[in-house]
Each structure stands twice: as structure tokens, then as C-alpha cells.
Amino acid sequence: MRMVDLIEKKRDGKELSSEEIQFIIKGYTDGAIPDYQISALTMAIFFQGMTESERADLTMSMVESGDKIDLSKIEGIKVDKHSTGGVGDTTTLVLGPLVAAVGVPVAKMSGRGLGHTGGTIDKLEAVEGFHVEIENEEFIKLVNQNKIAVIGQSGNLTPADKKLYALRDVTATVDSIPLIASSIMSKKIAAGADAIVLDVKTGAGAFMKTLDDSRELAKAMVRIGNNVGRKTMAVISDMSQPLGFAIGNALEVKEAIDTLKGEGPEDLTELCLVLGSHMVVLAEKAETPAQAREMLEQAIKDGSALEAMKTFLSSQGGDASVVDDPSRLPQAKFVYELEAKEDGYVSEIVADAVGTAAMVLGAGRATKESEIDLAVGLMLRKKIGDTVSKGESLATIYSNFENVEEVKERLYSSIKITASKVDAPVLVHEEITE
Ligand code: URA
Ligand code: CA
Questions:
Q1: How large is the average pLDDT for residues 253-278?
Q2: Which of 57, 89, 122, 161 is catalytic?
């Protein structure tokens, strides 16, 4: 096989075979095929697209390019959840204990990463003593025992995707649905998921800004998953504003605890119930999403979801007393209110910009080397559609430095107020099962 012939084939809109795709991904991972040929190929894919079987082959070739996590010693169907990214997305912290409480095994491999706030692991480290440096055996034992454990990323997962993503980033080929879909799915499958629930965000703060694009991405991922034998479904949810109120590490841990107590923000609670219901169904612990939802609501009501959170935290060295006393979480030195300058209705909360304001406070990493301040961040006091009176708080700023003028300015320009009534955005747009 010659790479140049395969580029030509894709350029002319023909379908690549399984063997050809395996040859490309193996050659690229090994270094036998150079970046410039893969650049030409990804550009051809950008214009010509990929068929369903090409997408499945690309996904599985990337899975095979590195280590795969073996979760076979964990009893039950391992359902993973993936969100396509957003601002203040606390769903993972809620969903883990919530579905574990009804018997769904949650074997989560998580990362730190760059962003407005830390990743799931950073957030959990706001709990004194909590750590994810555990051996694989311990991890598996904990999931079998408690139905939930989190381990840090280890091993060499999907190296082909890492190389390809970095190359796409500098060749204007990130925005290709088949390439995005196979990139995301390859990582979930390599991490050991038997079934996958996807939370595809849509709106100003999301990777996909329009409902059409989000739907197309969701469908592409659901098809890949089902074509490679992993039951997969997707929920398209709103990210035109941040989810919940908290944006920050310790603040989000507290918000997750509140939600598990049944006292969380309405939107976060609802999305967790929707996503959680599908996880429970895919794990075959309930027949229908409605039945699953009842089980989850019951777990919140009777305290078993909260109990699962405590067990989870203490099993990994964490101080579980934060669940009853969240004031034990890291606290910021300075607290300021962002007072509304006029009366009206909140019409916009630009999620990206609010996220950046939290990052300026130190809640997230701008570069890999940045240190996160777990105590700081923002609590929104209003959501789109809410009425506001002049002087009322739009958000609370938790900071470890005294001067927050820049943060305030950023927030004032991203939280917009109008005189006329505004409807709250729809939270769950669609559910895609194929
Ligand atoms: N996220 C990914 O993991 N891969 C992509 O290609 C795009 C977003
Ligand atoms: Ca939140």
C-alpha cells in the first residue's frame, strides 16, 4: 500500500477499506507516515467526509493504536458519560455517586486538563486527602465494592488520536464531524466503556454553536458507538449559559453535594436526572428512562446518593465530613457581589466569557504549568430569563486577591440585561438513540 494512493482515493471521494485505514493509523502512530501526508488526508476528509464504515474503522484503529483499559473484572455493564465540554459543568461529580447509588458501576478515568476550571480530578482534590493515585487492582476492587471509583489517566491511550488532534489543530481540520466523532469515541472505548451516554452541548458556550451541528455530531457518535458494539445514546443540552450556578473547583464540589441532597440548581438537577436515567437503562438496571428516573429521584430523597458520595470520598482518602459540612472545603479570602446596574431581565450570560473570568481568578489553567486555586470562582445568582433589580447581586466572586476589577468588568460585559421579558432557554433539546 502506498499512502499517496490512499490520499488520492479519499480526495476523489472514494471509500477507504478497513485495511487501508488500519495501515494509515498504524503508519502514522509508528512514524512511518509523515505529518504532511496525514495533513493532506485530513483535508481530503474535511471536504469529502467519511462513510459510516470508515468512521467505525477509524475509531477502532485509534483504539488499537495504544493501551486499552481492561474493566472486565468489574461486575456489570460499565456505562461511561461524556460531555462535549462547557462551562461550570458539574454533572460528572453528581452523576457518579447518583447512578452508583442505584447499582450502576462507575469506573471513571479522569484528567486534569486545561480550561476555565480544573478537570474532575482537580475538583475532587478540593476535598482534603482525596487522591486518585491508586493501583489498577485497588481501583477495580473499589468499583466492585462501592460501585464508584476515579483513577488518574495512566497508560498510553489512543496515541494516534493525540497526534492526529494536534496536527488537525494546526491544519484547520478540527471542524470535521467524522474526525471529531471518531476522536471522542476512540477515547471512551479505549477507557473501557461498554456503553456510552453522550451529553452534546449546544449554544454559545459550546463547541457546536447551532442545534443542527450539535445534532449532526451527536448522530455521528451514536452511530459509531452502535456500529462498534457499544450501546450509545446522546442528549443534546443547552450551553447558551453556564450549567448550574457554580464555576470553580471547591464551589462545584459543594454544588454537587447540594444537588445530591436534592437542593441543587434546577437545571443541573434536571440534566443529571436525564443523563443518569439513560445510564441506568444502558446498564440494564431499569427497563425505561421513566422507571430509571424514579429510582434516581428516590436515591436523592432517601439519602443513598449522598451516602454513595461519602463512601466514594472516604475510600480514596478524602475527608467525607465535607458532605455534611461544606465549610470544610477550601475557602477564598475575599467575597464580592457583582451588583446589577439596572432593572430588567437577564437576556444573556456568555458562558465562555464567564468561564474566562473564573480562570482569571485562578480557578482554571491557562497553560499546563499553571497552578489552580481550588477555593476561588463564581456563583451566578441569576440565570437567563430571571428578573433583576438594580443593586441586586448577579454573581458572587470568590477571590484570593483583593482587586477584582478586571473580573467585574468581564462579568458586566458578559451578563446582559434588557428591559423586555426573556424566556429561559430550553435545557434538553433532543435525545438521539439512532
Ligand atoms: N474533542 C476531541 O476530543 N476531539 C476532537 O476532535 C474535538 C473535540
Ligand atoms: Ca455548575
A1: 98
A2: 161
